[in-house]
């Protein structure tokens, strides 16, 4: 085939990035992207199977790479959802769509009645309840963004104020393919771990490689969890081969340290979520990391490269960062209380796996990745309007 002669070229690199960064590519919406992946399908499928053992689905209406993590992480959820109710309603919506024919139309009132009957909880859905209506609106917005429902007439925004608001929807063909298929009925699995474990055959020679590649590509960092961590030992033993392979097939750079491994990029990509980003709190993280580095000799670092902090000590260090650097912060950060600033900083650190909470003690563990990127203002920085210097 022509694409085999070209090998894994720059177009194949672009296609691989798109597959990892998108839930799916719809032919109707992005015909050129769809065609790009189709043209490189053979080399992509071979690489994806060999390194990740992922399923690449090429359908006449869409292309989808089913990305299954080794361990689920908080950011992997649907960020627009606020509660368990949102997820429960979304699952009920998918079940409702399964019972409909392709291109069949339905009214919002019909859906509301079905959801109230199917909702799996001792708490009854009440569409006169403002919070319940807001929850359904979030679910329908997400469903529309994924293109698993199509609005024919009406506007869901009016449902916020009036539970009698009517909207007409239609069932697109791709709604049938949103959920991935499983080897057996979901009710036969007893835990999330059991679902994830069925992804691997531990007897397979490729088992370790698939785990390692999935961790590298789906997480900000891969940590050494113990002195005899098998995944990390694999990374060390095959580091040169892994580096060459990843840098040949992607625009990532592979970095390996004593207790952490990660992929980084030289230039920002519009597709990727990277750190640091444009959010003001990212500046605080960089400055916090710099101050921590300056005081490193004062702290005890364990074998895995982690530093344990009580919340009060963490708060005190945050206060020091504020004293040193707040002249260059946004007004919202300058006006925040130390408690608000501490909690906001901790949330970002945990989200990016730069910190974690010890379940037994509630102690804060600062992780090795925090030392990978640090930042401070230049010596001639004066704050205020010069903050972008």
Description:
The protein has 389 residues and is of the alpha+beta class. It has four domains: 2-66; 77-177, Arc Repressor Mutant, subunit A; 199-265; 280-386, Arc Repressor Mutant, subunit A (Orthogonal Bundle), CATH 1.10.10. It contains 15 helices and twelve strands. The chain has helices at 2-6, 10-21, 31-39, 41-51, 84-98, 108-118, 130-145, 192-197, 207-218, 230-237, 239-249, 280-294, 311-325, 331-335, 338-351, and strands at 25-26, 55-58, 62-66, 105-107, 150-153, 168-170, 222-223, 252-256, 260-265, 307-309, 355-357, 364-366. Strands 1-3-2 form a three-stranded antiparallel sheet, with helices on one face. A three-stranded antiparallel sheet has the order 4-6-5. Helix 12 crosses helix 13 (311-325). It is globular. The termini are far apart. The model is unreliable at 1-5 and 384-389 (pLDDT under 50).
């Amino acid at each position: 085939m022509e694409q085999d002669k070209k090998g894994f070229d720059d177009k194949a690199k672009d296609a691989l990035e798109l597959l990892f960064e998108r839930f799916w590519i719809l032919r109707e919406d992005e015909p050129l992207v769809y065609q790009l992946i189709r043209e490189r399908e053979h080399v992509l499928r071979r690489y994806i199977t060999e390194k990740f053992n992922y399923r690449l689905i090429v359908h006449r209406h869409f292309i989808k790479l089913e990305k299954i993590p080794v361990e689920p992480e908080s950011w992997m959820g649907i960020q627009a959802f606020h509660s368990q109710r949102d997820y429960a309603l979304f699952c009920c919506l998918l079940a409702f769509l399964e019972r409909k024919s392709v291109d069949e139309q339905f009214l919002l009132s019909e859906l509301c009645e079905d959801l109230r009957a199917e909702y799996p909880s001792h708490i009854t859905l009440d569409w006169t309840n403002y919070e319940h209506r807001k929850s359904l609106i979030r679910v329908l917005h997400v469903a529309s963004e994924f293109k698993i429902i199509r609005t024919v007439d009406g506007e869901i925004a009016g449902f916020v104020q009036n539970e009698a608001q009517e909207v007409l929807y239609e069932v697109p063909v791709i709604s049938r393919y949103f959920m991935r298929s499983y080897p057996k009925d979901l009710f036969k699995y007893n835990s999330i771990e059991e679902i994830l474990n069925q992804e691997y055959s531990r007897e397979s020679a490729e088992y370790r490689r698939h785990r390692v590649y999935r961790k590298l590509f789906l997480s900000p960092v891969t940590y050494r969890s113990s002195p005899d961590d098998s995944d990390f030992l694999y990374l060390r033993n095959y580091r040169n081969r892994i580096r060459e392979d990843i840098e040949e097939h992607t625009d990532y750079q592979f970095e390996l340290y004593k207790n952490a491994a990660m992929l980084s990029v030289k230039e920002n990509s519009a597709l990727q979520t990277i750190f640091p980003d444009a959010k003001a709190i990212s500046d605080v993280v960089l400055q916090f990391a710099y101050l921590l580095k300056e005081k490193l000799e004062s702290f005890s670092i364990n074998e895995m490269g982690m530093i344990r902090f009580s919340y009060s000590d963490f708060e005190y260090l945050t206060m020091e960062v504020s004293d040193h650097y707040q002249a260059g912060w946004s007004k919202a950060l300058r006006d925040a209380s130390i408690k608000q600033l501490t909690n906001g900083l901790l949330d970002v650190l945990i989200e990016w796996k730069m910190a974690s909470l010890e379940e037994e003690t509630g102690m804060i563990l600062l992780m090795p990745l925090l030392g990978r990127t640090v930042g401070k203002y230049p010596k001639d920085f004066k704050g205020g309007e010069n903050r972008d210097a």
